[in-house]
Amino acid sequence: MNNNYHFIRDSVHGNLKVTDFEMHIIDTKEFQRLRRIKQLGLINLIYPGANHTRFEHSIGTMHLSSKLANQLELSEYDSELVRISALLHDIGHGPFSHVSEGVLEFPHEQLTEKVIKTSAIKDKLSERFNINDIADIINGKGKYGPIVSGELDVDRMDYLIRDSHYTGVSYGVIDTERIISNLKLEKYLVLDIKGVQAAEATLVSRYFMYPSVYQHHTTRIVNAMFRRILRMGIDEDIIKANEIYKFDDADLTSIFRNSDGFIKDIMTKIDNRELFKRVHTTKLNDFKNPEQFYNISKEELRKAEERISIAYGIEKEYVILNIAEYPKFDEMKTQVSTNGKLYHLNDISSIVKGLSEARFNMPDISLYVPKEYRSKMKKFKLEEYIDLPEKSENEINRIHYDQIKLF
């Protein structure tokens, strides 16, 4: 690759060096679309500063991937391959990022692969790289996949720092330098024992970013409202799910504003921040096996919503039962090297082990309705509308949950 460089000034990492070839990719219409997709979707309704985009996150991820490639002493070609894969890892994201992905039957990586294999960007990429190699890395496959999409990857490092910066929530401040300097590539991407504290801090950061940002109770309400009209838009063939990567935030917003009925009404409510209200919450950690909640099907939730709507005289589309995102925290499975042996991070860290046990302290199943119906729901009991697992007797969990609701 030639030595002609450009510099992009990033608010998080400073000056980022970009080659001519990478600049050609950045200047394609497919990549420029990412300027118009908010990294955190609709979270700017909760944190007004959260207006950063997938564009800057993608460039930041490329920057960190280059640092890690240097640490791993990759060849020049492999470093370039990893950089371009990191740059393109989110190019298939739909409008409002993970908000729209929550409606689709496939992950954004699948659409990313479609973009790099079928759009005009393919021809430019093919001048230097095998497209399948890029797709594999983006999907976490092969030798270099874990760098971009693994347990402790550069994608996660960038979005934690960036999301923390723009929301003003300090939990996402992590020591990327310490982590990167202690990673090595064996059969897997392995963390040296000296990097465990930094990895622990990263997990703690993510743990607290969930209730305060990603799964903040108001975030979940607005996401649930938007997903409902997106689902309806797809069902009514207003939008084709497999072409959602062609739209940006403004496109989808405009389509919904110019629709009729429920879709238009909900889009107007979101525009004016007239959000549904949470009228009931059941904490998953109140039950012996909270993971059982994730076996509840969408059909069961919809039937429960219909029964609630009939019981309380509310149109069924205005009743939303929402289960918090599953707290998987893949970083716990990071391989750690010490004394020539490999261990999972959660096997050698009491902090991570504690987080593994505590992760169900946060999620809940909640009922959302328009605020004018809130007074009717005071005696609502979830168990009358959906089968619940066996209750736990642990009162300590309730105290922890009541504390995190203060965010």
In short:
With 407 residues, the protein is an alpha+beta fold.
Count every beta strand, where a strand is a DSSP E run of 2 or more residues.
9
The major β-sheet equals: 4 strands, mixed
Structural class: alpha+beta
Provide the low-confidence segments as ranges: none
- Rg, nearest Å: 22 Å
**Termini gap:** 48 Å
- Percent strand equals 5-15%
How many helices? The count is 19
Q: How confident overall, as mean pLDDT?
A: 92
Order of helices and strands: EEHHHHHHHHHHHEEHHHHEHEEEHHEH
Strand order of the largest sheet: 3-4-7-8
What key phrases describe this protein's structure?
407 residues, alpha+beta, 4-stranded mixed sheet, 3-stranded antiparallel sheet, 19 helices
Task: Note down, in words, how this protein is organized.
By secondary structure, the protein is an alpha+beta fold. Helix content is 47%, strand content 11%. It has helices at 20-26, 29-32, 54-71, 76-88, 98-101, 108-118, 121-126, 131-138, 145-148, 154-167, 176-181, 196-214, 217-235, 249-257, 261-271, 298-312, 345-348, 350-358, 396-404, and strands at 5-10, 14-19, 183-185, 189-192, 277-283, 320-323, 335-338, 341-344, 364-369. It has a 4-stranded mixed beta sheet. A 3-stranded antiparallel beta sheet has the order 5-9-6. It has a two-stranded antiparallel ribbon with strand order 1-2. A hairpin with a 3-residue loop joins strand 3 and strand 4 (189-192). Helix 3 (54-71) packs antiparallel against helix 4, helix 4 (76-88) crosses helix 8 and helix 13 runs antiparallel to helix 15 (261-271). The longest helix has 19 residues, at 196-214. The chain starts with a strand and ends with a helix.
